[in-house]
Design brief:
It is built from 3 helices and 5 strands. It has about 130 residues and is an alpha+beta fold. It has one domain: Gamma-glutamyl cyclotransferase-like (Hypothetical upf0131 protein ytfp). Strands 1-3-2-4-5 form a 5-stranded mixed beta barrel. Helix 2 runs antiparallel to helix 3. The longest helix is centred in the C-terminal third of the chain and has 12 residues. It is globular, with a radius of gyration of 15 Å.
Length: about 130
């Protein structure tokens, strides 16, 4: 696979999941599914806003179909090395409420410095939630 390449779901074993906020904390991600495997850091772009997080591959059930790229609820994300994926967002609003936990997870995964600074500014400002 090369930067800028769209990665088809049949090139990734399992379902691709995008986690962000406190949901990407390694302990939380492992607890959610211990079989998950890290793919890359990635960003989700919505208009002008970027949300950084991580991509994980979750094993599919034995009877899963291979039409995962067209399943409802998928979003386009770009890995930090330029690959494009279709992923399911696993994060919910509760995972964005604790600004300090969001910041700690972003630092753990060494997300882009400008993004981490923005999260730190939000955490220092005691703003309600990040998202």
């Amino acid at each position: 696979m090369h930067p800028g390449e769209h990665v088809r779901s049949d090139q990734v074993p399992g379902t691709v999941v995008f986690r962000h906020g406190a949901d990407m904390d390694p302990t939380a991600a492992r607890a959610a599914d211990p079989r998950a495997r890290f793919i890359a850091r990635a960003r989700l772009t919505d208009g002008h806003a970027e949300t950084w997080g991580i991509l994980l591959a979750l094993p599919d059930p034995e009877d899963a179909t291979r039409e995962k790229d067209t399943a409802p609820g998928l979003v386009d994300v770009t890995s930090d090395d330029g690959r494009h994926f279709r992923a399911r967002v696993a994060t919910d609003r509760r995972d964005l409420e604790d600004a300090a936990a969001v910041l700690a997870a972003a630092r753990y995964w060494e997300l882009p410095p400008a993004y981490v600074r923005r999260l730190a500014d939000t955490a220092d400002g005691d703003a309600p939630g990040i998202g």
